[in-house]
Specification:
- 78% of the residues lie in helices and 0% in strands.
- The protein has ten helices and no strands.
- Helix 2 packs parallel to helix 9.
- The protein is elongated.
- The N terminus is likely disordered.
Length: 254
Amino acid sequence: MGQEFTELADRDVAMAREIRAQTDSKQGAAEIPYRDTVDSALSVYEANKARLYRQQDGKPIYAPDEHKARESTLLADLNSRLESAVQAVESRAADAELAARRVQRDPLFGLDVGDTQKASGLAPFVREEAEAQPLDRLTETVRTALLTGTKVEKILTLRYAARRVEAERAPYAQDGPKARQQHPQAGHVRTLALALDELEAHLTPPDAKERVQTAKERRAEANRLRAYAGRARGEADGSAARGIAEMRQRLGMI
């Protein structure tokens, strides 16, 4: 009976490995950044784990408590290596997402030192104007900035006029579409928003779409690696095989 359960357990382990291999093949694991790091970490773990057993009969070398402690140490090291790989790819994705966000709505990040100083001095006046002007006057200010403003004036006008749009929309943001359209200021807000769209398009760097696409790709890569590392971890700690065994029991399979 014990031999039968051992064979079933071995079969579950083998099935877990086969499922991981098939899943990785379907999802293009070869294209996952740092995949080699994950594979190497798993290989090191398996080699070190094998050293915990005698070659002649496959029995543990150490007493149960010592064996368990050594296995836990190996798993902790594996988890650390896997998490380091995942964090490296997560960092790449976060950097790409930050670069993409920076080109959306607030291009102040692209100013050089001199223009940054100019923006710092001018910002309070542009902000006050954007907050105090009637919406129709503010729309004209945005259009004038687009046609004749300096780069700094355009950027500051975009920043603070956009905040005004958000502030104007906030009181009725939760209303239905029809109620929002009927709000007394809704028409003026829409006109201002359209003017801001033109100003934003004028200021948006040519590579903005490319940055956004890169950010999406990097995030997808990070998600694939995290899943890949999770499958490797499940194979190493036995949770994948245990899941298969539990499913087999629920289905009444032997």
